[in-house]
């Protein structure tokens, strides 16, 4: 039976591996980290949008299927070296604890994303002021215990979220929207309200993009049940005053400037292609779109098709995605592989 | 080989049928309309977001694969009658020109959506004022020839788009966001600019939800290249003045009321579950979510899984979707069917 290499073991890669293996194909699942689960594992997401599924449980279910499956060989702490085209596929050098050569008939690139590093946008004071953290760091705090100010360990009485950090921003080079941060921040606000019944929680946004069924599930609920305040406005600068972050900006609805202190500030950092995406794309001859994500060549036929026959894409490698969307694309990529290989069902 | 019934021949159903048939399964594709293609055919979409693919070409490619495939039996002008569970699947009465009984091992519900009927929200004057049209009617105008005022056939010198008609609106009973209308309207604005180089084109919005890679591809391009104006504001009422629609509302950014005449007004109507969704759900024992769409029971595993084993969902039947998302879900549903049936690949 054909052998397929899936590169990246986040939700998209895990689902692709599972679907191919279930079908009877052999799968080599390659992951550079020492663990499976991608960003879900890396940041220990507690609750997942939009239905507050338990992140650890989803992660456990996703990984168990793959690690238990006889047809899936998991190679963690492994990276792709040299790639060569062959008659029936690709010869891929795999560099882990030892170097091996693998011959596979098709490849799925599911290399995911990394969060924008807010140190690249000095106005937020990230790295300088301890109580300015990222959304991923907030998830890690919530997973580990009560949310607290990093500066002194105190429980915050006021929390600000700043949307579109590293997204929709020509100055930092990312003109796209990261698609999930509005909803993730809203979800975090609702979770935070459980821990902090009295705190002031304010969202600073450009547009609230809780699209589709997230609208009432998250956005309305945040306002009507959790008492979260949404302010349309751009934060121009964060400084520090009496040991607390001070936000300066303009409220575009009341058309006036504001200066507002908070105990804790959460930056909703956007998604960028994972480090190494460009190099991997070059090795496999796959084109990238203008923002550096892998280009979907025929999205009206299959989201998984790239310009290179035999090489497919799934998940956030082709642009910002939710966990659910990444799981979907895992299946779509598996289906595209089956089509490419001309696999038929046993009668 | 197993036989699968796919109900609904829009992008999701067409793709599901294609992927299952390619694999060797027999597919019965059931469609109540006399044509294939769903909303894509019904409204003759000219250009598709976000890359302005030709709607007719996409439609032709999607339908050709299915109509040419020996394993797909297409039943147009057909509806589902009585449904009974059997040992290995479902016994379904099919009512077309004649009534037949079909036995299938699995079912995919891909029944899509209908647009919100703006007659249900009297403030827009739709049906009363001829120059207030829907986005779908604008597509039909663009497909047929130059865009014109319905009242007198004149080329419009000013066009207003009103977002969120029938969406995000508790008063009309639809609290969800329809997910695509911001981007579809923006795409239409860009297309309109080609035809109307001098016209004033204004978008009235709540939030501009051109999420992900649509942001610069559509929203920035509309503003920077096509000179389209975006006004954050709710239109409270449309009346008519000197034979032209008169919009009254409040600009929430400048915090002032406006009265503004336009030659043509386009209502970006949202998506609702297709007529008959409730009845079909009841026949198959499939649950609906609070807005009446079919409920995805395990979106973190597969978008296609419903509460009922053997019955799957794809496309806008489970909530507002783009064409691309619907095509993806066609593959996801096909994969879920293969899993459900325990289909394996031939070695």
How does this structure look, described?
The structure is a homodimer of 347-residue chains. Chain A is of the alpha/beta class. Chain A has two domains: 178 residues, 3-Layer(bba) Sandwich (FAD/NAD(P)-binding domain); 155 residues, FAD/NAD(P)-binding domain (3-Layer(bba) Sandwich). Helix content of chain A is 27%, strand content 29%. Chain A contains eight helices and 19 strands. Chain A has a seven-stranded mixed sheet. In chain A, strands 5-2-1-9-19 form a five-stranded parallel sheet, with helices on one face. Chain A has a three-stranded antiparallel sheet with strand order 6-7-8, with helices on one face. Chains A and B meet through helix 1, helix 3, helix 6 and helix 8 of A and helix 1, helix 3, helix 6 and helix 8 of B.
Spell out the blueprint of helices and strands.
Two copies of one chain form a homodimer.
Chain A: E1 3-7, H1 11-23, E2 26-30, H2 39-42, E3 47-48, E4 53-54, H3 55-67, E5 72-75, E6 79-86, E7 89-95, E8 99-104, E9 106-109, E10 113-115, E11 132-134, H4 135-144, E12 158-165, H5 181-195, E13 200-205, H6 214-224, E14 229-241, E15 244-251, E16 256-261, E17 264-269, E18 271-273, H7 277-284, E19 311-313, H8 323-341
Parallel strand pairs in A: 1-2, 1-9, 2-5, 9-19, 11-17, 12-13, 12-17, 13-14
Antiparallel strand pairs in A: 3-4, 6-7, 7-8, 10-18, 14-15, 15-16
Helix pairs in contact in A: 1-3, 1-8, 4-5, 5-6
């Amino acid at each position: 039976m054909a052998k397929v290499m899936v590169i990246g073991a986040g939700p998209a890669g895990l689902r692709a591996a599972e679907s191919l293996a279930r079908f009877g194909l052999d799968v080599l699942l390659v992951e550079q980290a020492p663990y499976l689960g991608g960003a879900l594992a890396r940041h220990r997401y507690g609750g997942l949008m939009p239905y507050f599924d338990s992140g650890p449980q989803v992660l456990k279910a996703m990984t168990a299927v793959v690690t238990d499956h006889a047809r899936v060989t998991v190679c963690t702490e492994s990276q792709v070296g040299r790639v060569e085209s062959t008659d029936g596929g690709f010869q891929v050098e795999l560099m882990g604890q030892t170097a091996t050569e693998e011959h596979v008939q098709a490849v799925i690139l599911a290399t995911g994303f990394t969060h924008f590093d807010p140190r690249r946008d000095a106005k937020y004071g990230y790295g300088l002021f301890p109580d300015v953290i990222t959304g991923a760091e907030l998830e890690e705090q919530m997973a580990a215990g009560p949310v607290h100010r990093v500066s002194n360990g105190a429980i915050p009485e006021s929390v600000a979220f700043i949307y579109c950090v590293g997204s929709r921003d020509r100055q930092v080079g990312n003109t796209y929207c990261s698609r999930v941060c509005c909803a993730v921040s809203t979800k975090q606000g609702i979770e935070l309200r459980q821990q902090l019944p009295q705190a002031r929680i304010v969202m600073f946004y450009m547009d609230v993009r809780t699209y589709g069924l997230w609208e009432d599930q998250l956005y309305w609920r945040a306002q009507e049940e959790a008492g979260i305040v949404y302010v349309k406005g751009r934060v121009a600068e964060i400084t520090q005053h009496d040991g607390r972050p001070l936000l300066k900006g303009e409220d575009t609805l009341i058309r006036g400037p504001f200066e507002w202190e908070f105990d804790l500030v959460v930056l909703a950092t956007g998604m960028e292609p994972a480090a190494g995406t460009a190099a991997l794309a070059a090795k496999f001859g796959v084109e990238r779109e203008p923002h550096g994500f892998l280009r979907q060549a025929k999205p009206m036929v299959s989201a998984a098709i790239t310009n290179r026959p035999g090489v497919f894409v799934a998940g956030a490698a082709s642009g910002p995605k939710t966990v659910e969307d990444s799981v979907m694309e895992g299946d779509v990529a598996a289906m595209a592989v089956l089509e490419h290989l001309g696999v038929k069902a046993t009668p």
